[in-house]
Design goal:
Elements lengths: L11 H16 L29 E9 L3 H8 L3 H16 L4 E11 L4 H17 L3 E9 L9 E12 L14 E6 L8 H11 L7 E2 L4 E2 H5 L7 H8 L7 E4 L4 H5 L8 E5 L8 H10 L3 H7 L4 E7 L4 H7 L5 E8 L6 E3 L1
Parallel strand pairs: 2-3, 9-12
Antiparallel strand pairs: 1-4, 2-4, 5-10, 5-11, 6-7, 8-10, 9-11
Helix pairs in contact: 1-4, 3-4
């Protein structure tokens, strides 16, 4: 008896239909440096013209997944926002080193390829790329019925950015008395969802459709709020000529694990927790699980998605000139204990 690839769990026709649907979505992100469209074995991007203004260009790359937030998307049957999430998260990672993101690749693996679902995910990716001047140069879909259970899927992204070598933001120039500024988040972004799901759905007994007064929306909608891409905000500061000494993207690990990644060994940082509005979703989770403060700040972004370290004299200029809200959330101090981040 003869069997087919489709009978083993891989539908080539569905994959082809997915590609057909997303071609035009992807094209709107192209600039004149994109040399290949969808369908080749690899993507090509001409960096010659892009790097003309650089003396010593450095390529900065990062890859990550949306993580268990995809489970919320599946429960809501809503897939466009997670496309935005993976672009924002990846761009913010290379941005933390001072790099301007230029190209993006996506990878979607699923138990079953459903063209309409793929189209919604990629529409979010394409919109987010276009808004930040990033070219979506390619991607891949994989139907892996033997790997993922029914309805399961994963979303991964890879970004490439560019920065002048002598303008890489390393944190080496940070010193005591420098100011810590915070750019507000929109919610959990793409972090802490394993704990968030346990709190809301196991301990709290809520469903994605449950409305909580403090959230002003349903649990599902609150948890699907899109990750913010800080590219435009950070380059608004950099392009003004002001120096950024350090950047910390507050991802999984929260304040306590991410801020030390940019600090010199002799420095610590004091965070004044009352200096910005804590978003309701964090307060609700804290109450559901009776979470300790340190656990909250070690897991979630608590309403601040990017921490920016600048000289004290630049604080007012940045706060007054930026189009987005900026909060002064703390200051750098001399490190005298094993703790690098002190929540006051």
């Amino acid at each position: 008896m003869s069997i087919t690839y489709q009978q083993s769990g891989v539908n080539i026709d569905a994959g082809n239909e997915s590609v057909r649907r997303i071609k035009e979505l992807v094209k709107k992100t192209f600039d004149r440096n994109v040399l290949s469209g969808i369908g080749g074995f690899g993507s090509m991007y001409d960096i010659h013209e892009f790097t003309k203004g650089y003396k010593h260009p450095i390529l900065v790359q990062s890859t990550d997944s949306v993580g268990t937030k995809v489970m919320i998307a599946s429960a809501m049957d809503k897939y466009d926002t997670i496309g935005r999430d993976i672009v924002a998260h990846s761009c913010d990672d290379v941005l933390a080193m001072g790099a301007r993101p230029i190209t993006f690749l996506d990878y979607i693996a699923a138990n079953k390829i459903i063209p309409g679902k793929i189209e919604k995910i990629v529409s979010g990716i394409a919109d987010a790329c276009a808004e930040s001047g990033v070219s979506l140069v390619g991607g891949e879909t994989a139907e892996l019925g033997g790997v993922y259970a029914q309805g399961e899927f994963d979303l991964v992204g890879a970004v490439a950015g560019i920065v002048e070598k002598d303008k890489i933001i390393t944190g080496a120039k940070i010193q005591p008395q420098d100011a810590a500024l915070g750019l507000p988040s929109s919610g959990l972004h793409t972090n802490g969802y394993s704990l968030a799901r346990k709190l809301f759905f196991e301990i709290g007994g809520y469903k994605v459709s449950s409305k909580i007064d403090e959230l002003h929306t349903t649990v599902g909608e609150a948890l699907l709020t899109s990750h913010i891409n800080y590219t435009n905000a950070i380059f608004e500061i950099l392009d003004s000529g002001l120096e950024i000494k350090g950047l910390a993207h507050i991802t999984g690990g929260g304040f306590i694990e991410n801020i030390p990644r940019m600090l010199p060994a002799h420095c610590a940082i004091e965070i004044n927790k009352g200096s910005w509005p804590i978003l309701p979703v964090f307060e609700v989770m804290r109450e559901i699980g009776s979470l300790e403060e340190r656990e909250m700040f070690r897991t979630f972004n608590m309403g601040i998605g990017m921490v920016v370290i600048v000289a004290p004299g630049d604080v007012d200029s940045i706060i007054n000139s930026c189009k987005t809200n900026v909060y002064k959330i703390g200051q750098v101090i001399k490190k005298t204990t094993s703790e690098s981040v002190l929540i006051l």
